[in-house]
Amino acid sequence: FKSVVVPTIPFEGQKPGTSGLRKKVAVFMQRHYTENFIQCILDAQKEKKKGSTLIVGGDGRYFTTQSINIIIRIAAANEVSKLIIGRRGLLSTPAVSCLIRTHKCLGGIVLTASHNPGGIRNDFGIKYNIDNGGPAPDQMTDDIFDLTEKIHEYKITPDLDCDFQQPGVQHFEVDGRDFTVEVVDPVDDYVQLMKSIFDFKKLSTLINGSETRPPFNVLIDSMNGVTGVYVRRIFLEELGSNQDSAVRIIPLDNFGELHPDPNLTYAKDLVDRVRNDPKFDLGAAFDGDGDRNMIIGKHAFFVTPSDSLAVIANNLNCIPYFQNHGTHGFARSMPTAAAVDRVAKKLNKEMFEVPTGWKYFGNLMDAGRLSLCGEESFGTGSDHIREKDGIWAVLAWLSIIEHKNMSIEDILKEHWKQYGRNYFTRYDYEECDSEAANKMMAHLETLINDPNTIESFYINAGKTYVVKVADNFSYEDPIDHSQTKNQGIRFLFEDGSRLIYRLSGTGSSGATIRVYIDSYERSDTTADAQIILKPLVNIALQISQLKEFTGREEPTVIT
Ligand code: VG1
Ligand code: CO
């Protein structure tokens, strides 16, 4: 095969957000659009791209096949030596991270827009992960973006056709060099990793029951995303869970027209089934690419991701991996409620607070200072890979339940009794007018810069909140000392309550405003979060004048 140089012109806005470049499928389908971006990803690797091996795969959404064909042809022409591709293009985000690490690759290209809807009218996405298995850091995504603004040609091998429906190795000669494509089973390596972390025998006994314990019934909802293939192998085949304990496990390129985001709004089917059928002891759902998880207990008892992180931190002794590897520090993203901080304090572990996005955990893990971390956005994970990991989180919970022989609700109640409870809720206002959202953020920026804001107070429903700190969160990475600014407007009150405002960096149209509300109670730990937090929610709307700026009466999603 011979490669050719194709002239092109830059496209505006190829700027990776919180987690990769996400746009409508139609945008990626424009002539040269995807080609440009792939060429820039490779060019950002400079000389290292030559002779490298890359992992390629994604959640199987519409445009996956087309984009993999483009990646194969551009990689071949750019002197990449080898691509390892998931069969049918499928790889969950955690599996990509796992494969990069086990095969010691230069990196991976993840084809997903994660929890965003898929299909021809919806979103596609491309994300680059580096050699540690984690999302490219800001420096690299900035480099990629700079390249996309200057690109004027790309290299491609137009006649190279390569099937990736079945596992196997294929060799090609491209411009006189060897180019290899290895198609792998998407699950094999990942399941090996999970078996090295958890005690599958114990988990199987938990699920199937024993002489002393009845079966523990799970209901797993893959929401038509990529986790279906992992759930089938791990839960149905390895752990022997019965066939009807897993639903929507065939990956569909439009996710069956649902929004593959595991929360109380978009995973409502699962929540309703578990609420109405007392047979189920645990319900879990994942997003399209399998890095997010939602855990609910019997009768749909909801575990907030912030609490999930804290409970896992408090029970790492139930998981063989941590017994073998020891435990270092814990971390959470800034908007995540601080429940895990209390566990860190008690266990005398280092605790880190990083900006939103999994890329900020990587350096700490590589430096051996971080074992377990999470985000309020249904992300939980550890240093076994460098991505959050939905299936891992469910296996972690099952390990804890097996060990403690308690229900999810009882585990949480015990935890709150010991540590107190961080009530947390997030209000999302999706697809707002961008200009209105920007104006609201500018208004908040003015407020935090006004010296009178400190010690000002807000009263709602008989509760008074005094502002102690008001700022825009910035972060210095403790390892490489890189600075990250403008990561969210914060109002920290004297009683420890917090209000945080951010604009989402994962949407593909308009602006999504996220308002995070967090309040700590030492003794009143079993109330309804929405009721407890109502006064703070009202104050959040008052401070931001969100309704006035956006015209929105209600959020689109509450988690
Ligand atoms: C959101 C979440 C963030 C998460 C990111 C990627 O980002 O808030 O916590 O890391 O999605 O998750 P944003 O900028 O929209 O708030 V995933 O599963 O979509 O890769
Ligand atoms: Co995801």
Radius of gyration: 23 Å
Classified in CATH, the superfamily of the largest domain is Alpha-D-Glucose-1,6-Bisphosphate, subunit A, domain 3
What portion of residues belong to β-strands? 25-35%
Average pLDDT, rounded to a whole number, is: 95
Largest β sheet strand count, sense and barrel closure: 7 strands, mixed
Could you write a compact summary of the structure shown?
InterPro entries: A-D-PHexomutase_a/b/a-I, A-D-PHexomutase_a/b/a-I/II/III, A-D-PHexomutase_a/b/a-II, A-D-PHexomutase_a/b/a-III, A-D-PHexomutase_C_sf, A-D-PHexomutase_CS, Alpha-D-phosphohexomutase_SF, PGM. The protein has 559 residues and is α/β, with parallel strands linked by helices.
Using brief descriptors, characterize the structure shown.
TATA-Binding Protein, Alpha-D-Glucose-1,6-Bisphosphate, Chain A, domain 3, globular, 559 residues, binds cobalt (II) ion, alpha/beta, binds alpha-D-glucose-1-phosphate-6-vanadate
Can you tell me about this structure?
- It is an enzyme of class 5 (isomerase).
- Helices cover 33% and strands 26% of the residues.
- It is an alpha/beta fold.
- The N and C termini lie far apart (52 Å).
- A hairpin with a 7-residue loop joins β25 and β26.
- The chain contains 19 helices and 27 strands.
- α2 packs across α3, α2 crosses α5 and α10 runs parallel beside α12.
- The protein has a 7-stranded mixed β-sheet, with helices on both faces. Strands 20-21-24-25-26-19-27 form a 7-stranded antiparallel β-sheet. It has a 5-stranded mixed β-sheet with strand order 11-10-12-13-14, sandwiched between helices.
- Bound molecules: alpha-D-glucose-1-phosphate-6-vanadate and cobalt (II) ion.
- The site of cobalt (II) ion has 7 residues, from loops.
